[in-house]
UniProtKB/TrEMBL annotation:
It holds the Pfam family MGS. This is Methylglyoxal synthase. Substrate binds at H12, K16, T38, G39, T40, T41, S59, G60, H92. PROSITE patterns: METHYLGLYOXAL_SYNTH, MGS. InterPro entries: Methylgl_synth, Methylglyoxal_synth_AS, MGS-like_dom, MGS-like_dom_sf. Catalyzes the formation of methylglyoxal from dihydroxyacetone phosphate.
Amino acid sequence: MSRTRCIALIAHDQKKDDMADFARRHQAKLMGWRIVATGTTGGRIKDAVPELDVTRLKSGPLGGDQQIGALISTGEVDMLVFFVDPLTPMPHDVDVKALMRLATVYDIPMALNLATADILMQTLTA
């Protein structure tokens, strides 16, 4: 029996509205995926699209980025969508870089902006 594929969704504070809109627009495709998200982002996604099954982890700065990194390293996350805000300093920047490094090391698709995330969603089947 094959497992349900998993997508991790993360957004910096200034990008959370974009992530909620992204989830709303791609609801049909996301319904076929297990979703893990950092705390506040996961809450915003659930508010926007209550039908999605979202597992909320800790907030990014409180360890959520590292939790998702651990899931990537154990093969439980198949894709990462991380809406990064390049114009705002992040106190947990090292965690963000580590997460991107893991996605690269484990060769999973990773989108860091809306344009790339939309293209990845076009390639998906549920």
